[in-house]
Structures are given as structure tokens and as C-alpha cells.
Amino acid sequence: MPSIKLNGWQRIGIIASIIWAFGAGIYTHKADVERANFFANFAYKVCAYSKEVAHETDLSSCDQERKANIIAWMKGSDENVAFAALAPIPLGWFAAFILLYVGRAQVIGFRAVVPWATLNWAKKSFVVFCTFVSLISILFAIMVILNLYVDTQVPVALALRPKVMKFGEDSVIAEGTWTRSGPTQWSSIAFPLQTSRIRCNRQERRCMEAKASVSGNVLVSELLEYEVESWTGGSIVFRNDAPCASEVFTIDLNTEAVSGAGHTINENTAFCKMREDNEKYWNYLLSNGFDVYWAQRQKARPLLLRLIQTLFGN
Length: 314
Known about the structure:
Blueprint: H1 8-53, H2 60-74, H3 77-86, H4 88-108, H5 110-113, H6 121-153, E1 163-167, E2 171-181, E3 194-201, E4 206-215, E5 218-231, E6 235-241, E7 245-252, E8 257-264, E9 281-287, H7 289-300, H8 303-311
Antiparallel strand pairs: 1-2, 2-3, 2-9, 3-4, 4-5, 5-6, 6-7, 7-8, 8-9
Helix pairs in contact: 1-2, 1-3, 1-4, 4-6
């Protein structure tokens, strides 16, 4: 059996392919694990704060929720690893093949390398196909690099639709992501990557909110207390008063919607005059976390990535 002789470029290509397969696979698996752990820890912290609010010391359900989140986020990771490791390799070989021909064309002339006029239809089709694949390979590589940059700007996804859960007649829990709107540029929420769990107790006449927010790559947690103003069969109204603002929130038990409204107070005091914004009123809505995450991701895209994705209708 005759032996196959490889030239220098082919050897380099094989070595590069092997390095890419291992490197991309390891990187993708590591990224999936980090993303799964980040979200699971994010949800665990919210659960733990909620337990603290309810004066519960048993965190076993939070541990189970964390494990379930990791399993959910790691689902499909093997397919992601295989695709990232193997799919770009044939595209890379096609791109390298075209680049070699382009390089030769620059040295000895394009017509000498690709005598287009003398090629039959099959060879012309092959040249067009290789050119198309090379362009797709270049676009794919650019998109991968730019999406990695977007991942650094929006490092964590959020849960889906908000939920309102009743536990008997005296306990209600609401979960979701707050969005904020109003008439000024300061109206949007400061840290959009945020999730909250609100637990209201009828007997105690109070609601406690365990809130976790992502600022850059830092996870920030808060524990807020609200006074219940009214509790009926259809709604719960609670409020929070600060030195310069008053906010009232409503949990609609029929529609399972959670909303809020705020306005400024004590505007003439020296402390409140130090506020940089001139916002008079604003509104809140407990929303679908994934929509917030996706909007932030779209906003973080560099211009070049937006232009490329526009070509594909995104």
C-alpha cells in the first residue's frame, strides 16, 4: 500500500486542527460549567435570603434547587463541545485552501492559478463554492470572537416568566426580574441583570424581598423590608419609604402580576436637593428575566456583530 506524503502546510493544518479540537472543546466545556455554576449560585443566594426572611434554617431545598439548575444549564453541553471542537475544522481547511490559492495568485497572477476562461462548469462551480465557504468561515470566526466579547459584558442569563405562588391564606411568594420605566434617562433600573423573590406574610403585615443583581462581574445581594398596607382576596399592597422617595407595590393575585409606582418626596430638604436626576415619578413591573437578559445582550453587541447578524435577519 503506497504511503501518503504530506507537505509542510498539510502537517501544520493537521496539528492546528488537533490543537483547535482540544482547545475549543475544553474552553466550551469550561464556559458551560462556569455559566451553570454562576446561575446556580445566583439562584441559591436568592433562595437562601428568602429562607432567612422566613426565619428558616433548613437550606436543603436551596441545595436541591442549585443542583437542578446546574443539571438544566449543563443539558446539551456535550453537543456544544462537539460542535465547537469539530464544526469549524472543515471550514478552516476550506478557508486555508482558498488563502493558499489567493497567495499564489498574488505571486504568479490570478489567471495562472485559476484560469477561469478555460474551466468547465464543474470546476467553476467548485471555485464559487470554495469562495462562498471561505466567506462563511471568516464571518463565523468573527461572530465567535465578537460573541465572546458580549459574554464578558452580559455574563449571566436570567430565569423566565415571573411567578406568584400562594401558600394558604397568609403567605404569598412572587419571583421575577424588575424592570423600571419613567420619563427621564435615569428611569431604567441601574442593574438590569437582577432577580428577586418577595415573600409576604399576612400575620406579620410585612413583605421581605431577597434581591440579587449583577454589576459587571460582581454579584450584589440585598434584603429589603416593606410594610403591608392592605391584603385582600385579590391583591396585596405594600410600600417602602426612603428619605427622598416613596414606592408602592401591588401583587395582583388574580392576574399574577406584580407592579409598582414611585414618586419623590421631601424635595425641598437639603439632602434630597443633592439628587442628580430630576425624576418625579417612575414605574416598576416584575417581568420575564430572559427578555431582560436578551435585551441587554442585544445592546452589548459591537456594531460589526449587529451588521453581520442583520444579514441573517437577527
